[in-house]
Prior knowledge:
- The two termini are 31 Å apart.
- The chain is globular.
- It has helices spanning 46-51, 78-91, 108-118, 141-152, 240-247, 265-276, 300-303, 313-325, 331-340, and strands spanning 5-8, 16-23, 61-70, 98-102, 125-128, 162-166, 169-172, 177-178, 187-188, 196-199, 202-205, 228-232, 252-257, 280-285, 305-307.
- The protein is 26% helix and 21% strand.
- It has nine helices and 15 strands.
- Strand 14 (280-285), helix 7 and strand 15 (305-307) form a beta-alpha-beta unit.
- Bound molecules: succinic acid.
- Residues 23-25, 41, 71-73, 104-106, 129, 131 line the site of succinic acid.
- Succinic acid is lined by residues 23-25, 41, 71-73, 104-106, 129, 131.
Amino acid sequence: MNSPNTSSDASPALPRIAVLATGGTIAGAAPDATSTAGYQAGALGVNFLVDAVPALASIARVDAEQLASIDSKDLALPLWNALVARIDALAADDAIDGIVITHGTDTLEETAYALHLTVKHDKPVVLTAAMRPATALSSDGPLNLLNAVTVAAHPGSRGQGVLVAFNNKIHCARDVVKTSTYAVDAFHSPELGVLGWVQDGRVEFARRATRPHTRDSQLAIGNAWPAVEIVTSYAGVSRTAVDAFVAAGVRGLVVAGTGNGSIHATLQAALAEAAKRGVAVVRASRVGSGHVMKNGAANDDALGFVSAGSLNPFKARVLLMLALANGVTSRDALQAIFDTY
Ligand code: SIN
């Protein structure tokens, strides 16, 4: 990872916003302007992204920094350590008012939630991305970047945890999920809805996140990430994946169950054995929205499982990794973590 700094100075009276680039379609380059699927993510540097939005100069002084240049499908967990370290260092600088992270859409919801639980300050941290590469006709990246900087520069964003600004909407990192493979309106917060909106330089919040985050989170980023994998329940599923993961020494398994987190009897038996052997088992749903009720579709107390509540399997995995990394291991303590965060 390299970190060349560039600073575009507008007026010193404007807020100073750090833009950390990590790659993604927002920095993607295609062979021609009509390609929106065949492109290389993360090909363009952060200066290209900032220079494409001259209007940024009227809302903030932007410090642009390249932290990574990846397709976020290939994200490796040490990038989260690097992001938390850089965000907390920038936030400790009195001159910085907020931080924007440009990211790929594919794993944005996981990064956003990991940061929401582990950065330790109140300054705005806003992730954004794009569905169309920077070289495309009607690329959505420039407006998303402008809106993300607008949100990061807004005093009302302070203390709201990590935010996602995408397609004029402001989402809470805990709630937001990617819901489309192609649409520019690709992110939604299915159960609780958006936190607010950003349009034409105006920011409006309709609600606040209610669960603890950032400074109020007991979870810190660790240097070692416990092995936690995801298995899915479906018609005719076997126990092969669970047995292989347990034999490989995983610390935790998240199951993407059917419906209200129900699990095929074959898979459930394998997971119950895993739980007896000390593997943390979290029950989520593959449905895409809703809430997995504790002791509902499976008897969590009898089976030794934890209910993920409204977290999807990918976010549940983030929380389980962080809980285990912070020394939370018993079933009841893990359930308390899931009930809290
Ligand atoms: C990525 O996630 O890096 C590529 C896809 C995207 O940003 O939309």
